[in-house]
Amino acid sequence: MTIQFSDLGLSQPIMQALDMKGYKEPTPIQAQAIGPVLGGRDLLGIAQTGTGKTAAFMLPGIDRLRAADKQIPFKSCRMLVLAPTRELAGQIAQSAKDYGALAGMKVHSIVGGTSVNKDRNKLHRGTDILVATPGRLLDLIDQKAFNLSGVEILVLDEADQMLDLGFIHALRRISQLVPAERQTLFFSATMPGQIKELVGKYCNDPVTVSVTPAATTAERIDQYLFMVQADEKQSLLDLILAGKHEVPGKFERVLVFTRTKHGADRVVKKLAQRGIAANAIHGNKSQPQRVRALDEFKRGTTPILVATDVAARGIDIPGVSHVINYELPNVPEQYVHRIGRTARAGADGVAIAFCAEDERAYLKDIRKQTDAEFERLPLPDNFRAVVEGVGPTKPAPKQQRQRVQPKRRDGQQSGAKQGGGQGGRGRRSGGGQGRPGGGKPQGQQARGGGGQGGGNQGGANRGGNRRRNRRSSNDG
What architecture does CATH give domain 5-210? Predict the structure, then answer.
């Protein structure tokens, strides 16, 4: 018998909101989590990204706040949801607004990269639900603009990525600032040992809900592999995105992952040189830039998005047909999150990995951790010619300037040059005697010697000038 949302004990306002969105049947994580959360239990939810974790905690959370019927606390919130990235925080906040529209819930979100003063103003009177990134939340707490004394429900979404991004100290601080009497909900795609440790400290006898084994890949994603040299990856990507090398699946929206921010920008720049429009999204982009890039990607106006792992978690973008791992992640669990951007909401997806010689160890770890099965694809027949044709060209070597020797009369030796050289040594040593230039007629020898002595004399003259200048400056 298929479970319906109406079987889970949700309130009428929530059911009406679900009807408006066309939701009838809960996903497995929702079906298993909503009941315990409605009952007030702490919960640890293990589920792959894209399985509906947001609704699994937000729907029963809103119902619990509504049933408690408490006033909004001054400069605080009743339900605090922590998210690792700005994009995920914005997505959760929008879901909270949609689900809580008929329940009268006041929802706000605060993230880094935006105006702190605006955040202070909008949170001055408090809110029912606050979705926040840890850094910005602690900034406002340190400024005495916000506090956590009113928190009834604490939610950590994508808790394992919180740890990956170095938020462990922030989470420890926040756990000390929220009331001891609270409900705590953890949701994550993987279950590393550090999460187990935190669950023991944060939660009180939690219910564990796991709908898939930790670190497994989505069953509806076909995974393919290219073995290609690192300096040839850009050429292969150009051919694939330009439709000149056929790969499985029909291109709709393509998400390309790199390991570094500069790598993402470099890929976008190279694609633009080939006439292929793409946007980049990573931590160095401002919040308006990131919002604009995601919006163009969702609308399909720029259907290619190059991203670092900032976009690997929790971003629900319908219609991502392909995920291309331009560079393999050095953490195997991150591969799960990357390819989880496709095959969402029941759709199928394609994941393509580029693996260079120095990434074989990463590929081995991914296979071991996720049991992923890759179908290896051949490189294009003319790939070597293409690489040589579009690869970077070496700059032409600089031509050395040839020194033009002055013409000399027969029987002359460059005595002036020798004399100048000796004079130069006289200047550096502060004195010395110039030697007469050798190999010259008698009349020119004196000129050569004069040139050499001139070097010594010039040093003496400059010394005298410096002494006169010092006397002059002392007089001033």
Answer: 3-Layer(aba) Sandwich (3.40)
